[in-house]
């Protein structure tokens, strides 16, 4: 049998190092790793040990440092998701999970994560309506809504409305509102997937109330008004507003996208649930994790009759949210200002002051940092074209990759060959962690 070339003997030191690489069981007996195995699970810790052994075998670390390296590389939790400081200047960053939750929402989720009275009335011991206090919070916040229902996301709210209210009948929608949400998902395809038929009216740039009126007939399920949340059509345009559609004798479902419950003065072009319901929408659908600043979910608000048809439809069971979402949503609606709201309303003078202080601190630590003005955006497919004046710390571009690998990871934005750390979406309490992450990234340069 051909054994191939004889192995080249390693230099004596390395050979010893290889022989001395400790066995997995021996490393796992290290008290730090044994404790971590109880907290994170044996598989998670074993993976860190195997990686450290591989590094020792490759000569990257000494063989007697395997346990230290494994302990140092342990993740903070048993899940792979890591905390990231959002210094991109995009408030609702889709790849960073859109809205960050408030402390109030996080605490509510933690409490609800155990056994909790999500469907139980503790006063009587009888079964109670699931999520009733979250629904009550929504109705208190939007008195124009007679009833509310919560599903998994904005897309699920549309699917449920289409299934429960249109069935195989027509949904009348403007050609100017056939929106692709993102990642290749398109609202018209989503609706068609339910079996409903789309009745497109008007043109890309102009659709009048008469176009809708001409399409209404016995085969109509409802009129759908979709807020074009991630693009703008300008020039020779016309669209029908909710008030113009409300008198046509068929239900009007309005997808506002962003989840604003009431008007936001900084974003005058963003629709909100209260205004569109008052204008005559029978149902409003929205996302929970955009401008509302809450957990991923889909809100349905409006007339009792229609909300009930959605919430009692068999499909509602497949789209229902868990207790964690209900807890976070209620705390978002009832609780203090959300991080998203704080970021949106942050005053540019204070952002500049924070950027200056951070840059001073970093320069004192030997980092090539400078405070600069910057443009932030709402993001998450919301408020296209709106520029939020902001401030950033500019670093040499190679920092971007190093900061992504740090702990916490920091996600900045590359602009003109520099790495900008935009502060608008960074809560002020994270400034210190940000400075330490940059200082750590600077080490070894
Ligand atoms: C974001 C958005 C959706 C989809 O909502 P998800 O919560 O992402 O499912 C639907 N319609 C509009 C207008 C949107 O902006």
From TrEMBL:
Compartment(s): Cytoplasm
N6-(pyridoxal phosphate)lysine PTM sites in chain numbering: 290
Domain L-seryl-tRNA selenium transferase N-terminal: 18-57
Enzyme class, first EC level, given as a word: transferase
One GO CC term, this protein: cytoplasm
Keywords, in A-Z order: Cytoplasm, Protein biosynthesis, Pyridoxal phosphate, Selenium, Transferase
Recorded coiled-coil stretches: none
Catalytic activity: L-seryl-tRNA(Sec) + selenophosphate + H(+) = L-selenocysteinyl-tRNA(Sec) + phosphate
Superkingdom per UniProt: Bacteria
Region (Disordered): 1-24
Cleaved signal peptide residues: none
EC code: 2.9.1.1
UniProt pathway annotation: Aminoacyl-tRNA biosynthesis; selenocysteinyl-tRNA(Sec) biosynthesis; selenocysteinyl-tRNA(Sec) from L-seryl-tRNA(Sec) (bacterial route): step 1/1
Chief location bin: cytoplasm
One Pfam family, short name: Se-cys_synth_N
InterPro entries, per the entry: PyrdxlP-dep_Trfase (IPR015424), PyrdxlP-dep_Trfase_major (IPR015421), SelA-like (IPR018319), SelA_trans (IPR004534), SelA_trans_N_dom (IPR025862)
Function summary: Converts seryl-tRNA(Sec) to selenocysteinyl-tRNA(Sec) required for selenoprotein biosynthesis.
NCBIfam families documented for this protein: selA
Protein name: L-seryl-tRNA(Sec) selenium transferase
Upper classification of the organism: Bacteria, Bacillati, Actinomycetota, Actinomycetes, Streptosporangiales
């Amino acid at each position: 049998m051909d054994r191939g070339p004889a192995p080249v003997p390693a230099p004596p030191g390395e050979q010893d190092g290889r022989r001395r690489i400790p066995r997995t069981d021996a490393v796992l007996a290290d008290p730090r790793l044994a404790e971590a195995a109880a907290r994170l699970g044996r598989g998670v810790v074993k993976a860190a040990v195997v990686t450290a052994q591989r590094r020792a075998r490759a000569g990257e670390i000494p063989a007697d440092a395997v346990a230290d390296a494994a302990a140092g590389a342990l993740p903070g939790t048993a899940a792979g998701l890591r905390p990231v400081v959002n210094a991109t200047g995009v408030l609702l960053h889709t790849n960073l999970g859109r809205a960050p939750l408030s402390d109030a929402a996080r605490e509510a989720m933690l409490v609800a994560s155990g056994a909790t009275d999500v469907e139980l009335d503790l006063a009587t011991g009888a079964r109670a309506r699931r999520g009733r206090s979250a629904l009550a919070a929504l109705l208190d916040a939007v008195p124009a809504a007679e009833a509310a229902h919560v599903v998994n996301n904005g897309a699920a709210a549309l699917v449920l409305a289409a299934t429960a209210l249109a069935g195989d009948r027509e949904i009348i929608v403007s050609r100017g509102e056939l929106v692709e949400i993102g990642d290749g998902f398109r609202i018209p395809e989503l609706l068609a997937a339910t079996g409903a038929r789309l009745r497109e009216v008007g043109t890309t740039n102009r659709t009048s109330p008469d176009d809708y009126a001409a399409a209404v007939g016995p085969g109509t399920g409802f009129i759908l008004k979709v807020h074009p949340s991630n693009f703008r059509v300008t020039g020779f345009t016309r669209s029908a507003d909710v008030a113009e559609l409300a008198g046509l004798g068929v239900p009007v479902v309005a997808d506002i996208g962003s989840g604003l419950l009431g008007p936001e003065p900084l974003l005058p072009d963003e629709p909100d649930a209260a205004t569109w319901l008052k204008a005559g929408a029978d149902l409003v659908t929205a996302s929970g994790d955009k401008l509302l600043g809450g957990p991923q979910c889909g809100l349905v608000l409006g007339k009792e009759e229609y909300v009930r048809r959605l919430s009692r439809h068999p499909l509602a069971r497949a789209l229902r949210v868990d207790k964690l979402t209900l807890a976070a949503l209620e705390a978002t609606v009832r609780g203090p200002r959300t991080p998203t709201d704080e970021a949106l309303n942050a005053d540019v003078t204070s952002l500049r002051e924070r950027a200056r202080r951070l840059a001073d601190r970093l320069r004192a630590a030997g980092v090539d940092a400078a405070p600069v003005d910057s443009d932030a955006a709402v993001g998450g497919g919301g408020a296209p074209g709106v520029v939020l004046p902001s401030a950033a710390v500019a670093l040499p571009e190679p920092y971007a990759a190093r900061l992504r690998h740090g702990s916490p990871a920091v996600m900045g934005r590359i602009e003109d060959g520099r790495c900008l750390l935009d502060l608008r979406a960074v809560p002020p309490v994270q400034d210190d962690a940000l400075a330490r992450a940059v200082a750590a990234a600077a080490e070894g340069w």
